[in-house]
Amino acid sequence: MSASDKSGTASRRTFLKGALAAGGAVAGAGAARAAGDPAITQIQPWMQELGDGVDVAPYGKPSEYEDQVIRRTVEWLTADPVSSINFTPLHDLDGIITPNGLCFERHHGGAAHIDPAEHRLMINGLVDTPLVFTMEDIMRFPRENHVYFLECAANSGMEWRGAQLNGCQFTHGMIHNVMYTGVPLRLLLNEAGIKSEGKWILPEGADAAAMTRSIPMEKALDDCLVAFKMNGEALRVEQGYPLRLVVPGWEGNMWIKWLRRIEVGDKPWHHREETSKYTDLFPDGKARRFTWEMDAKSVITSPSPQAPITHGPGPLVIKGLAWSGRGTIPRVDVTIDGGKTWAQARMSGPSLDKSMHAFYLDIKWDGQPLYLQSRAHDSTGYVQPTKQALREIRGVNSIYHNNGIQTWYVNEQGVAENVEVS
Amino acid sequence: MSKSLKLFGGAFLGTAAVLAAAANFADGTIASLPDQASRMALNAPADMDGMFIAAAQADEVPADAKLGLGREALAEEIAVWDIDVRPDGTGLPEGSGDVMTGEEIFVESCAVCHGDFGEGVGRWPVLTGGFNSLTKDRPVKTTGSYWPYLSTVYDYINRAMPFGNAQSLQPDDVYAITAYLLYMNDLVDEDFTLSRENFAGVEMPNAEGFYMDDRAETEIPVFTGEPCMEACKDTVEITMRAAVLDVTPDETAAAEAAADTAEDEAAAPESEAAPDAAPASESDGHAAIDPALVEAGEKVFKKCKACHQIGDGAKNRTGPQLNNVVGREVAAVDGFKYSKTLDAMEGVWDEEALSAFLANPKAYAKGTRMSFAGLRKPEDLAAIIAYMKAAGQ
């Protein structure tokens, strides 16, 4: 890569392609030996000229050399981008926290832009006193901070019939993991006073889809939050600004964004998103409903189809993510031979309840093909199943909750591909 | 919540608990002071043991006393927002609608996406048919074949449809559309009228097609236990490759289009409005465009965005792309299937013609498939035309 090349993206892409074409050899190293590395021997512009002043970026952005790190969409999936989904670029990220601007988006009537001064949260139904809160009211309740993953129930849903999309962004990118600041839902419900026959809640969004889901009271009183901050700053518009529900460990569709109302009732409502959608159809024509918990799951994010090996044989960092809606991830197994032999990965970073966990396996790559898989164990003892084991129970038409083991085939050049193996 | 040590969240509360306990100490040795304790923390643990456990472990607020925040919701307010309907009919408003009325509304407001017979246009949802398909290789899950309760149909149409013009239908309209969907699914006759009174009597074919999540019994035991770590299989063969299907988005194209979006998002909020198109139009010899009007028009255009795209990379959606629409020949976008009415119209969309069309589309072009009631305010018409000029060049 030429150091004087101003077009960072282009040069990075060229570099990746060049490296692949050269069979994984590192071009720059050879040049350095011949005449000294120009990155060192030549004075670079940034070594000589002044950089940006503190008034250039009142809200900071990533380096221009990172402009390939973006959410991406799969156009053919949905009828219209307003009611659609995009994907978190997991292959380009590390650690457990997803940056706010890269958190995947799913909305059903577009991302609503709401003036917080005009936003209200109503609690009504089977309560002693129906209440209306302003945002200022909500900010006066005691608040908590928690890191939780949010995974769409349809994550990996395109892979039920077999390997389909080349990239963990597309196969596993309907997930993000951020720290929420919010008020425990039970405090708000308690403020209104739940009547004894109140067994369910129906949170509702203020967007044009007026999204609703039925949630059992036990969960509502356990660990749900009404959140206004993510990773320290206000929720992003596309994540429900100014207020969203956090339903730890449960499918993302239930985390109602732009939260404007919570009704307390004695029975579930069976609304569209818990009957027509988010129900899991089995081969016998019957469907599971209320499949709320997200099963333990993991994926290797690099190497992966969008993150090939470009450095040739030798030390290689295999990195990945694991999570469970039922607890923590004490262990992840990784195989490089398609499941003949497994090794325990090294867990790194905080291990938090219902949060993503980062894992690594540091190997010396011999340049031979790899058949990479990872297998999560959660704190309940559940072990992530193979895709085939899931299909044997659920068939291929259940769309949601595909937590099967993913395989990446990496060839001698370091190019990775989404495959299934025997 | 688990009682295990959490890395986040404990520190703040722990500090509050320590301060509160210190106050309690003072209370015990010097007398008087409970007010001080309550000023420090709303709900501190009652004893010292509790305090230290709290400092080390608590990551949740123990408070459950009412704070007196918020105000009582008025009945009038609840009536506006509380629109949800349940399978037993709870929440249904007074009203009724018949199949024939439903057909008229459906053709007018729904068919543009769902098709005249609910067959679905493009990838928009199919609403009819699919009976006996749920066990097939390619199930067709429609309101008729899959939805267990009619209340769900009413509730969803009422809260979220028509797409891009939600909550614009009156109760009688929703009853009528719901009746028409039943008719199209061969569940009622054409003279059927649906009302709040007979609603609960309509049973959907797939009402018994669902059962409660049973993973705890059917899967978790199967997927629990120490797995094989060594010599787990003899051979590993690739059985399927994603590359064969080749449905992954083109990396470069997708990356560059989306990069623009990401940059917009990361920019300061003020930069969101007002497309910077005024200089271009000046150089074209037109009068300068009023940026405030363009900005107002961008807001009005939200009513159109469900079906139309405008600007760089705009594509045909439910409606044609609108680049250069001001001054464009009527029905001139390649690859878009216009109604016969628009196909037969001559002329160009000058400002006058566009104003007349957008004020009342169905009156101006009877038979247009554009499902839009029209813009009543002249200032909205002026604004949206200014916006389309600016954004579409």
From TrEMBL, chain A:
Domain of life: Bacteria
InterPro entries recorded: Ig_E-set, MoCF_OxRdtse_dimer, Mopterin_OxRdtase_euk, OxRdtase_Mopterin-bd_dom, OxRdtase_Mopterin-bd_sf, Sulfite_DH_SoxC, TAT_signal
Keywords from the UniProt entry: Metal-binding, Molybdenum, Oxidoreductase
Residues of the Oxidoreductase molybdopterin-binding domain: 108-269
GO molecular function: heme binding; molybdenum ion binding; molybdopterin cofactor binding; sulfite oxidase activity
Moybdenum cofactor oxidoreductase dimerisation domain ranges (all copies): 289-406
Biological process according to GO: sulfur compound metabolic process
Cofactor: Mo-molybdopterin
Matching NCBIfam families: sulfite_DH_soxC (TIGR04555)
Record-given protein name: Sulfur dehydrogenase subunit SoxC
Organism: Primorskyibacter flagellatus
TrEMBL record, chain B:
SUPFAM superfamilies: Cytochrome c
Key words of the record: Cell membrane, Electron transport, Heme, Iron, Membrane, Metal-binding, Signal, Transmembrane, Transmembrane helix, Transport
GO cellular component: plasma membrane
Keyword Isomerase on entry: no
Membrane topology: Single-pass membrane protein
Biased composition (Low complexity): 268-282
Gene Ontology MF terms: electron transfer activity; heme binding; metal ion binding
Gene3D superfamilies reported in the protein's UniProt record: Cytochrome c-like domain (1.10.760.10)
Cytochrome c domain span: 97-185, 292-392
Region ranges (Disordered): 252-284
Signal peptide positions on this chain: 1-22
Compartments in which it is found: Cell membrane
InterPro entries: Cyt_c-like_dom, Cyt_c-like_dom_sf, Cyt_c_1A/1B
Segments passing through the bilayer: none
Keyword Ribosomal protein: no
Chief localization: membrane
A Pfam family annotated for this UniProt entry: Cytochrom_C
Protein name per UniProt: Sulfur dehydrogenase subunit SoxD
Organism listed in the record: Primorskyibacter flagellatus
